[in-house]
Amino acid sequence: MKSRLKQFPTKLILACALAAALPAGQAMAETCLSPYIKGLKQPEKVMYLWTLPATPNGGPDFLAVIDVNLASATYGKILKKVHVGSSGNEAHHMGYTDDRTKIWAASLNSNRFFIFDVGADPMNPKLIRTIDNVAMTTGLSGPHTPYAIPGRMLVSMASGPDGSGPGGIAEFTNDGEFVASYKTTNHPYETVIKPEFNRMITSAWFPQKTFMSPLDKWDPKEWSNPNTMQVWDLKARKVIQTLTGEPVNLAARWMLKPGARYGYNISNGGNSIWMFEMKDDGTFSYKKSAEVPPGCGTADLRQSPDDKYLYVSCFSSSEVHAWDISDRDNIRLHDTIQGVVQPNMMHLTFDGKRLYFTNSAISTIDYSPRYSLQLIQIGPDGRMKLDPNFKVDFSQAPDGPARPHDMLLN
Amino acid sequence: MMLESVLAVAPAEAGGFGPRAAPLWAGEPGAARGSYALDREDPGLHLIPMGRSSPRAWVPINGHARRVLTWPLIALLLSGGLDPAVAHDTPQPGDPSVSEAPHLAVIRDAPDFTLTDAAGRPVQLSALRGRVVLIAFIYTTCVDACPLLTQRMVLLEQRLQETGLDAETVFLSITVDPERDSTQVLGEYAARFRAASDRWRFLTDAPDRVRRVLNAYDEWTRQPAKGSLDHPARLHLVDSNGRVREIYNLAFFDERQAYFDIRALLNERS
Asked: Cα–chain-centroid distance for residue A244?
């Protein structure tokens, strides 16, 4: 075999490969998903919105299927609600499997996963499996964000099995079979992976016992290291470094440029944006990039496909910010949308032009019942405009008001 | 510690909730929405460096290298291949982009199957117990990701041979396109890569038999454009006891890491 390998025209091939590759430039991309997921490469037709009733007897949580195809006669309408058969789950975050055929929807309160098939008929998701007793299976509770890796899902779990103490990461097959758990020293919120660097970062927030309690019952003494981010050797499934910043590091995003070794995260408690960067030895530096305007209450962080802008939702001050990050070490506030109410989750389209947002965080901390899904149009200059022609009002639904949270597009 | 921004929520809603009076920017919304066709671009059509010590090593993101892997390049790839020196360098001590001590949890039992190799011989997975098996799903008319993957597997095979681990390892490349990939076609494909051997088998069979295997490995196919196939493009690493211990994404497959994974599974036996 060695002899045959020696026959390869090696340098020429590499030169051709690089010459062909390098001019490709920056591409559009569906951001803020696992890099292992097949990305959407065309305008979205349907949105899946993970929703919970806003009243105590409002019925089961549901996946709202919303028409977002501008050419459709039912554009902007809820086409159907796929109920999950149980209530009180606290519908929160979702994630596609790597092949985009299934959605995992996590329940903050009930420690369940709901798996929907969206591959067979994207306009008609089907609930194909409910996984109960996740805390017993994994030794962890408070499932937050399902995140795809090849053939499997990693789920950031906020706390120990009884809802208190540090949490960890749980690993399942795409079909829902438990693989393994990995404990941490904080309360994992979100997982972001850079496969080519073999690095995973997990952010942190609160234990389940805290976030499912009324706000006046929140006790910081019950929190373990909420001001930390953890860096993992992905292949080893091992925490190799803890980054210390300000409290409650919610969303984190790696930059997408080829070779980019850095990214940003928001700190809710610090009202700030931080930058993490991998050094040559695989360890990370971590520093504050910017203070956001006082009172913002950073809730979600999204990125443009070209690494030029970050979008920050301000749950408390009811604003959405666009931050210009072209100069990575001197990021600045570029534009602000005001007059919306408690914006929380956002989702940017593959072309970077449409930013959907919802406005329920958790039932324990929402302060306005005016629940809705709205849309911000983003211009070529990165400026934002609230789209007056798109609004799905969840506060006036015939079957009762509901709290919309996480979104996925297809 | 108080979380000022969480706890100090707005006492009352600020501002109105209805649509703004101000119009969208010039040309909107029609311009933005009407420009979709022009704006359709595949994400990830660039190559990315693999690791600190491998500044010259590149792999396509998300398997969509169609635009950068031109036909002349494909021809070059098929005529020869990537030299190890210009693909992923052997990792240096402390290289963070690979882990020499991978954690390889038991994911599930690998579904058993019997398919036919390019020489017409039956190959049963369970008959390979005692060895580590790398299963890849390809199709021969694939012009971008599949040839690159096969090249990476050539490099992996060489590394295993250099370290004396090749006799304990089997590669199975299974077609996802059994209608077109006959044993003869697969044989020619393997020959182009000089890859056919008793330790690297290219498998096909009657379409219904292959489909059952694809379904068992969650390897669906769709035909988005004439001549091409969309499929999850995963690789499965099966240990000597017939259990799936790692699943790779084709676009991020790094033969250096796969080598350490195989070595770890082989070491488990001793």
From this structure: 21
**Which of B2, B7, B9 has the most A C-beta neighbours within 10 Å, making it the best mutation to test the interface with A?**
B9
A27-409: CATH class: mainly beta
Handedness of CA B187, B189, B194, B196 (dihedral sign): negative
Chain B, window 105-134: residues with a beta carbon less than 8 angstroms from a chain A beta carbon: 105-108
CA dist A46 and A392 (Å) reads 13
Please state the rounded mean pLDDT for residues A154-169. 98
Of the partner residues A220, A281, A370, the one whose CB lies closest to the CB of residue B13? A370
Q: What is the pLDDT of residues A28-43, one digit of tens each?
A: 889 999 999 988 989 9
Domain count, chain B: 2
Rounded Cα gap, residues B72 and B50, in angstroms: 24
Using left for φ > 0, alpha for ψ between -120 and 50, and beta otherwise, residue A83 falls in beta
**A80: which residues sit within 8 A by CB, 6+ positions away?**
A64, A65, A124
- B138 and B252, same domain (yes or no): yes
Contact B86 A338 (CB under 8 A): no
Query: Looking at the domain assignment, is residue B196 inside a domain?
Result: yes
Half-sphere exposure of A163 (CA within 13 A, CB side): 11
Query: Which residues of A fall within a CB distance of 8 Å from B264?
Result: none
| Mean pLDDT, chain B, integer | 73
Indicate if B56 and B182 belong to the same structural domain: no
Q: What percent of chain A has pLDDT over 90?
A: 89
Phi, psi of A102 (to 5 degrees): -135, 155
The CATH number of residue B131's host domain is 3.40.30.10
Burial class of residue A91, CB neighbours in 10 A (0-12, 13-18, 19+)? buried
CA distances from A254 to A180, A276, B26, B109, B131 (A): 25, 9, 33, 34, 38
Cβ distance of A341 and B13 shorter than 8 Å: yes
Chain A closest CA to B249's CA: distance in Å? 6
The residue range of the domain holding B210 is 108-269
Whether the bond into A60 is cis, omega within 30 of 0: no
Residues B73 and B159 in one domain: no
Residue B33 within a domain = no
Residues A215-262 have pLDDT tens digits of: 999 999 999 999 999 999 999 999 999 999 999 999 999 999 888 999
Q: Give yes or no: residues B118 and B247 share one domain.
A: yes
- The complex's ipTM? 0.92
CA distance A379 to A120: 35
* Residue B68 domain flag: yes
Let me know if residue B97 belongs to a domain: no
Taken in order A243, A244, A249, A254, is the CA torsion positive or negative? negative
**A81-132 pLDDT per residue, tens:** 999 999 999 999 999 999 999 999 999 999 999 999 999 999 999 999 999 9
Distance CA B97, CA A198 (A): 5
